[in-house]
């Protein structure tokens, strides 16, 4: 039986509802990148990652940036995408004009190696949010979403949550999300990482088809198989921070052959050139770099040049290079119905207003919280179970002065539970959400202000309802005074404690570089707050030079407010009556509060201080996010 090779390359996808965009050609000249070595105490100068590299990536071409580990592939991609600026020298031009970062962010998208997706959204929900944020009101979003997911093979999985998608489906969804506004330039960092050979082929095939539609597609790839290697139009190969080849796939082997570097028969040229760049065939990188700078690659870019230079060598590449010339750049496809729409390439602002972004993100955040088992369902169960456990252990002790010490301990235990139940889930989940936020914000979906406001408002109902359930259980099971004012006071303090604790967790999560750091810092940060809360040590025992710490502990105000709600005056100013008890001086509520330096008239002050802590911590967390985004823009993403 004779087997015939099937040409699996597809024609470009035809989208009828994408907005009109101009194709982009990226040119870079004498790009260098330096990073400091050593530390602030022992400066060792600078290390050069990229050394005066130049080149151009054209519209309509799929370009692979290759090289051994440490050659500078990701660094070059990050600089071209605008994510690295500090320490960079050289120029980057877009269509012959100097790149304007704010403008280029709207013209490009960056799809990272790890597909950062919200796990609790379905494919259709994620695509709908993307279309609502990235497209104008006048555009047909529903038709566009259906068209994109159908073309990219995700229609049958449209109601599947992203956490249940396969690796290839997640990669395609990441492309779909960025394709909504039809970006002329798409950057991919290791798009085949973690995928099997067939799925990798499908992803590269998709990128090839997108490039044929007139887009500039640039990706880093380490060692592609021969099957993948043949699908690229252009290669930009780095070695020791400089270009050792810049040209077509067809011209690679003849170029190497002209330098007496002969790729063995039936050997993958991609593997061979990586071995050359790694120095396995001697120190030849300087020679290749010099040839590239002299324009020697241009001699091997046509069929005639290739056949003339190495007629015998090219025959061995029948199964590992393209059989046709690269696709010519064409205009990005768009329907005639949108041809009269205003082209927003010159508009540096977001396509939607801040209020619209806030509303869309609020609905998305609320939906994710409702579906999150750890953040919602587990928190609900824990509030009920811990409330019942406290209620059983401290059953009906509130009106018995003999158990005053135990009752005060129960009040502090309630404060402690509210602190950790609000803080730790946020500490654990917020850093993971941060990765999604970084991708979407850097790809110009929405502003930091809109995201932060939506995140703040979305979780407030849960921070109000869960403490209510908890307070109802423990307040009445432990036999606290059946006075409406006192219960309301106790509940208000509990809600404020929960809100402030969540704000602290958000600050720790935003400021921590990794989830492990945030997990460690959460409990550690709570130790001084609890130490100066007034329960373990009285104010008069605290050294003078540490007294200020007690005023910086919001747990102090939460604990004092809870004590006042139980033993102090109520809203009407009426003091609590003496508690029945045979022990002397144990039935006076004022005396009980004085033992913990709590003053009955301080309830309003405690509430005000908790509100101030809430606002200040939220503001600091916002500034921490803003600083982190700035660092990402200059030093790129922390996980690279």
From TrEMBL:
It comes from the Eukaryota. One of its GO terms (cellular component) is plasma membrane. InterPro entries: AAA+_ATPase, ABC2_TM, ABC_transporter-like_ATP-bd, ABC_transporter-like_CS, ABCG_dom, ABCG_transporters, P-loop_NTPase. The chain crosses the membrane at residues 380-397, 409-430, 451-476, 488-510, 517-537, 603-625. Gene3D superfamilies: P-loop containing nucleotide triphosphate hydrolases (3.40.50.300). It is found in: Membrane. Its main location: membrane. Residues 26-265 form the ABC transporter domain. GO terms for molecular function: ABC-type transporter activity; ATP binding; ATP hydrolysis activity. It is a multi-pass membrane protein. PROSITE patterns: ABC_TRANSPORTER_1, ABC_TRANSPORTER_2. Pfam families: ABC2_membrane (PF01061), ABC2_membrane_7 (PF19055), ABC_tran (PF00005). SUPFAM superfamilies: P-loop containing nucleoside triphosphate hydrolases. Belongs to the ABC transporter superfamily. ABCG family. Eye pigment precursor importer (TC 3.A.1.204) subfamily. This is ABC transporter domain-containing protein.
């Amino acid at each position: 039986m004779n087997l015939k090779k099937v040409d699996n390359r597809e024609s470009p996808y035809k989208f009828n509802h994408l907005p009109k965009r101009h194709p982009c050609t990226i040119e870079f000249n004498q790009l260098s990148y330096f990073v400091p070595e050593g530390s602030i105490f022992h400066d060792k100068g600078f290390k050069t990652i990229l050394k005066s590299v130049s080149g151009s990536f054209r519209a309509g071409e799929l370009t692979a940036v290759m090289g051994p580990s440490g050659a500078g592939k990701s660094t070059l991609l990050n600089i071209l995408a605008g994510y690295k600026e500090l320490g960079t020298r050289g120029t980057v031009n877009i269509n012959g004009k100097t790149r304007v970062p704010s403008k280029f962010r709207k013209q490009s998208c960056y799809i990272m190696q790890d597909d950062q997706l919200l796990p609790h959204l379905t494919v259709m929900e994620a695509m709908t949010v993307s279309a609502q944020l990235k497209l104008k009101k006048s555009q047909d979003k529903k038709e566009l979403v259906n068209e994109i997911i159908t073309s990219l093979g995700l229609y049958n999985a449209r109601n599947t949550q992203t956490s249940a998608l396969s690796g290839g489906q997640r990669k395609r969804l990441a492309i779909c999300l960025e394709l909504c506004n039809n970006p002329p330039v798409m950057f991919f960092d290791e798009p085949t990482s973690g995928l099997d050979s067939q799925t990798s082929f499908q992803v590269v095939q998709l990128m090839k088809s997108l490039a044929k539609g007139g887009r500039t597609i640039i990706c880093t790839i380490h060692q592609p198989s021969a099957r993948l290697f043949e699908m690229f139009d252009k290669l930009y190969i780095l070695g020791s921070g400089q270009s050792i080849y810049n040209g077509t796939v067809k011209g690679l082997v003849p170029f190497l052959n002209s330098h007496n570097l002969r790729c063995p028969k039936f050997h993958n040229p991609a593997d061979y050139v990586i071995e050359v760049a790694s120095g396995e065939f001697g120190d030849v990188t300087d020679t290749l770099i010099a040839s590239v700078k002299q324009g020697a690659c241009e001699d091997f870019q046509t069929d005639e040049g290739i056949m003339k230079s190495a007629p015998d060598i090219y025959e061995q590449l029948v199964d590992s290079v393209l059989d046709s010339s690269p696709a010519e750049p064409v205009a990005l496809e768009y329907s005639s119905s949108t041809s009269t729409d205003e082209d927003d390439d010159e508009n540096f602002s977001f396509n939607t207003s801040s209020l619209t972004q806030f509303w869309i993100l609020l609905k998305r955040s609320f939906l994710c919280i409702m579906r999150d088992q750890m953040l919602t369902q587990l928190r609900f169960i824990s509030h009920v179970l811990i409330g019942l456990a406290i209620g059983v252990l401290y059953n009906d002790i509130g009106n018995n002065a003999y158990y005053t010490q135990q009752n005060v301990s129960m009040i502090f235990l309630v404060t402690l539970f509210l602190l950790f139940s609000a803080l730790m889930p946020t500490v654990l989940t917020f850093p993971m959400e941060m990765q999604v936020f970084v991708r979407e914000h850097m790809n110009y979906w929405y502003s930091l202000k809109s995201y932060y406001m939506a995140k703040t408002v979305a979780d407030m109902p849960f921070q109000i309802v869960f403490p209510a359930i908890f307070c109802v259980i423990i307040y009445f099971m432990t036999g606290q005074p059946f006075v409406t004012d006192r219960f309301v006071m106790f509940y208000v303090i509990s809600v404020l404690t929960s809100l402030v604790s969540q704000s602290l967790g958000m600050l720790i999560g935003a400021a921590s570089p990794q989830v492990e750091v945030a997990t460690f810092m959460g409990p550690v940060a709570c130790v001084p707050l609890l130490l100066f809360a007034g329960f373990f040590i009285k104010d008069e025992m605290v050294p003078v030079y540490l007294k200020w710490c007690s005023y910086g502990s919001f747990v102090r105000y939460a604990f004092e407010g809870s004590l006042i709600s139980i033993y102090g005056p109520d809203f009407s100013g009426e003091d609590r009556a003496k508690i029945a008890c045979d022990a002397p001086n144990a039935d006076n509520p004022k005396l009980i509060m004085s033992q913990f330096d709590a003053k009955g008239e301080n309830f309003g002050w405690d509430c005000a201080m908790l509100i101030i802590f809430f606002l200040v911590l939220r503001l600091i967390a916002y500034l921490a996010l803003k600083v982190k985004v700035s660092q990402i823009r200059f030093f790129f993403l922390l996980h690279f």
